[in-house]
Amino acid sequence: MALIDDIRALRIADYDYPLPDERIAKHPLAQREQCKLLYYKGGNIEERRFWEVPSLLPDHSTLIYNNTRVINARLRFRKETGSTIEIFCLEPVLPRDYEQIFQTTGHCVWQCLVGNSKRWKQGSLTQTVTIDGREVTLAATRGEQRGNAWEIAFDWDGGAVGELQCTFADVLEAIGEIPIPPYLNRGTEESDSTDYQTVYSHIDGSVAAPTAGLHFTDEVLAECDRRGIRRREITLHVGAGTFQPVKSEHIGDHPMHYEFISVPRDVIMDIIDAPGPIIAVGTTSVRTLESLYYIGQILEENPDADEESLTVTQWMPYTTPCRISTEKALRNIVDYLDRHHADTYMGSTQLMIAPGFRYRVVSGMITNFHQPQSTLLLLVAAFVGNDQWRVMYDYAMEHGFRFLSYGDAQLLLR
Description:
about 25% strand; alpha/beta; 2 domains; QueA-like; six-stranded antiparallel sheet; 12 helices; nine-stranded mixed sheet
């Protein structure tokens, strides 16, 4: 209990630093791979360029990145009174499966944030758009409230009888906007539709980009291949909670959000058999990979655990005795998948990584510079140490690095 008490008592004010607005990158560099790279290894810091990453990774590294694709999750409806209601799609409700909901035709339900909700007292909101030459009307109807979010039912017609109906993916593509981070203090621009996607994104579902991957280009990935660096994909659909500031004085009072994760069986086996270190691209990949250990530990105690029981809760790493090796935990997941004739593990995680956390899968990470007093900064501090994160951020500030989603990168190695 002493560890969890110490973790909960951490003051978020101790993870603050001055960040002037002019140091927040409002757009990425024209050539992504030319951004600055803070290279941290064994306490030493160097300024490099991102295109050098393949040569800086240890021999026989396995690079694991998040293949999620940002959806046009922000929808704006204008009422007859002139008021604008903003609906921000968070996660699917009906159907609950991401792949299925994007292929629905005519009706689906999402959990959403609603902006200017006081102006939406009753009835449905509608707007009409042309999709592939057909006029399609989308209606949004508000349902049950859950915390600060609402269940929103979307209904749309799909054109004349006999024509192929529009999917919800088609509707979002035509009506929605890419939800760029609020700290950019600007509206979404056409360039964001490509700038705010990684070159390897292809699984729809995120409402925020796994931004550490934005620096990769096809050429950098090809250089990784040439150097024998293995590349593997996992999926974590980033939720709006990634923008949620820590408002409590102590992190023990901050609720982490749940996020959907998906890891193929083959990737788990590749981690088990990896000839060198596992390097995670982005904090989303870090949280996914580190969650695997605790999923395997649950299965060690209950091999027949159901899907709900396999959820990784926020404080599990600090309250659960860790009695098995990382390899054993990962093999437990492989055995579970084999028993269920499944080729991919799918679940959810609420994992909080903060100083005091023991990393069990990840040996290095590529990440960006994160907001002051954020859970992402806590994750970095847990990796490099409380005495080092500030040294790194001071160095970046003094050497003209650009911060946050469209800013520069870091390569952190043990």
